[in-house]
Amino acid sequence: MPIVNQKNSCGILANEQFPVLYVSGQKGQSVISDEKPEEEDFFRLPNLTAQDFGDAEFKKTYGLKYALYGGAMANGIASADLVIALGKAGCMGSYGSGGMRPDIVEKDIDKIKAALDGKPYMVNMLSNRNAQAELDLAKMLVEKEVPAVEASAYITPSEALVYYRLKGIRQENGRIVIPHKIIAKVSREEVLEKFVSPPPAEAVTSLLKDGWITAEEATLADKIPLADDITVEADSGGHTDGRPLVSMLPALIALANRKQAEFGYQQKVRVGAGGGIGTGLSCLGAFEMGAAYVVTGSVNQGCVEAGTSDYVKQILAETEMADVIMAPCADMFEMGAKVEVIKKKTMYAQNAQKLYECYVKYPSFEAIPAADRERIEKKILRDSFDNIWKNTKDYFSKADPSKIPQAEKNPKMKMALVFRWYLGNSSRWAVQGNPERKFDMQIWCGQAMGAFNLWVKGTSLEKAENRHAGELAELLLNSCAYHYMKNLLIRMGAAPETFREDIL
After folding, report:
1. What is the mean pLDDT of residues 267-290?
2. What pLDDT score does 1 carry?
3. Whether the Cβ atoms of residue 274 and residue 233 lie closer than 8 Å to each other
4. Do 27 and 162 belong to one domain?
5. How far apart are CA 162 and CA 135, in angstroms?
6. In angstroms, what CA-CA distances link 272 with 68, 72, 131, 460?
7. What pLDDT sits at residue 34?
């Protein structure tokens, strides 16, 4: 009959070996054990574990042990190995297909499927200016029978995304069967409404007209939501609106519920939480606010399985919460879009901001004052503007040839494409660990990384080489469950000093 105390509390609370706890005694002097006490006045509590948190239907839908998935990070940072590690741990990973060649994406999907052998996984569909490339990816995902995608950075759902959603949809025994699941990341109300609504009619009509979907699939489109699940993405690494989770999550859950009532779908659209999830307590906070599941990101980038360089992983292991900053990014550069990156040991944020300021202020590269042009060529590009333009043309000759004649006639557009060469390559230099470009590395990261580092300081997890994605996911959720039980018992009268502060 173990009596819970500070020494053993981490081994009893949130432990499935002790399914029930009994609380007896006076407030402030409560006794907690796993056997029914002799006193008549006691409480009987289920000892909740990590598996008990989150929405049961979410876990059932995706075949998960835990209500947690690892969000995608582009350029393969959310690698096949990372997805496999999370899948084997009872969670789910989203493969970072953004910026990857189609043949590599296809190869990695095959690797994931072989290693997981039916266990859950996702592939990221990142909003893409190149509509044909996005449609080609969606077609590949359908052909590869990828069961779910994580839709990221969409303001308006694309035809490619609608095609993936509707292909194979059918009615069986009075119910609509949807073979392709979508989890959409959103940070704005109007975007959530689009994903909780049925697929846009104009996209459905266009796909039907072009023969991408059948008449039956088109007919069923207005009876289902575009997404099965919505991830409310708060302040996070990479693209972010920087909005606080405590404000966004309750508001967007309420909005999703209103839209659900409006459309009356056969299955409720669930809402999860991402952004800032770096400790067990942050997981608990999200669940307590109503999240169906939690999404991790930055903390996974520092794991052994992540597809980035050891140099970057070491920087991530040293990052503090104040070491991140917003900086211009390659995609949507001309619009002034920014991403959250590390400012420690890199000059990327300052360099990118300089390029953006010059783009906004001047009609062409030649119009930039001579001193600034020299600094850009020598310190940032490290090559002449003309040479970088040649490299840029080589890239677009394959990716999108129509851009070349447009830029040749439009010097401001030409300047933007050259500047985007630097911004685009900076993230690849980080992934590659290019020693000549250490101070130009664009390392996407949110404040969750600093919170995690502070949490594990003084433990074996302080070292980057000891961080494994599956183990970290379980640690976060086990800590979440421990804190829930500890806080509940304290509210019921147990003295705070009865328990250890955390499970670490």
Report:
1. 97
2. 57
3. yes
4. no
5. 10
6. 9, 15, 28, 30
7. 76
Q: What is the pLDDT of residue 25?
A: 74
Cα–Cα distance for residue pair 157/296, rounded to 1 Å = 24
Structure tokens at 141: 């995902």
Residue 2, pLDDT > 80, answer: no
Between CA 296 and CA 289 the distance in angstroms is 17
| 303 plus 201 within the same structural domain | yes
In this prediction, residue 405 carries a pLDDT of 95
433 occurs within a structural domain = yes
The secondary structure element, H or E, covering residue 421 is: helix 411-432
In the block, residue with structure tokens 């939690």: 294
How many structural domains does the chain have? 3
Q: Assess if residue 275 is contained within a domain.
A: yes
CB neighbourhood size of 90 (10 A): 20
Query: Which pLDDT score, from 0 to 100, does residue 32 have?
Result: 83
From first CA to last CA, the distance across the chain in angstroms is: 24
**pLDDT tens track for 140-175:** 999 999 999 999 999 999 999 999 999 999 999 989
Compute the distance between CA of residue 337 and CA of residue 201 in angstroms, rounded to an integer: 29
Burial of 117 (0-12, 13-18, 19+ CB in 10 A): exposed
Nearest of 120, 198, 126 to residue 155 by alpha carbon: 126
Residue 370's pLDDT band (boundaries 50, 70, 90)? very high
Task: Indicate whether 122 belongs to any domain.
Answer: yes
| 55/285 Cα distance (integer angstroms) | 15
**pLDDT value of residue 36:** 81
Please state, in angstroms and as integers, the Cα–Cα distance from residue 260 to each residue in 73, 99, 176, following that order. Answer: 30, 34, 16
DSSP 159-189: HHHHHHHHTT-EEETTEEE--SEEEEEE-SH
**Which residue has 């996209």 as its token pair?**
203
Same domain, residue pair 305 and 346: no
Residue 504 lies in a domain: no
27 is written with which tokens?
Answer: 């407030």
- State the CATH number of the domain containing residue 136: 3.20.20.70
- Mean pLDDT in residue range 218-241: 94
Give the model's pLDDT for residue 26: 66
Is the domain of 78 the same as that of 21?
A: no
Specify the length of the chain in residues.
504
pLDDT digits 0-9 by tens, 312-321? 999 999 999 9
Q: Residues 429, 494: one domain? A: no
Residue 326 in this model has a pLDDT that exceeds 90: yes
Final residue in a domain of this structure, among 274, 309, 344: 309
Q: How far is CA 246 from CA 251, 282, 496, in A?
A: 9, 11, 26
Q: Contact 426/348 with Cβ under 8 angstroms?
A: yes
Of the candidates 48, 208, 227, 74, which has an alpha carbon nearest to the alpha carbon of residue 137?
74
- Which domain does 358 fall in, by range? 320-444
Q: Is residue 285 domain-shared with residue 333, that is, in the same domain?
A: no
Of 278, 309, 340, the position where a domain reaches its end is 309
Residues 283 and 342 in one domain: no
Quick one: 166 and 186 in the same domain?
Answer: yes
Among 9-18, 37-46, 385-394, which is the least confidently predicted range? Answer: 37-46
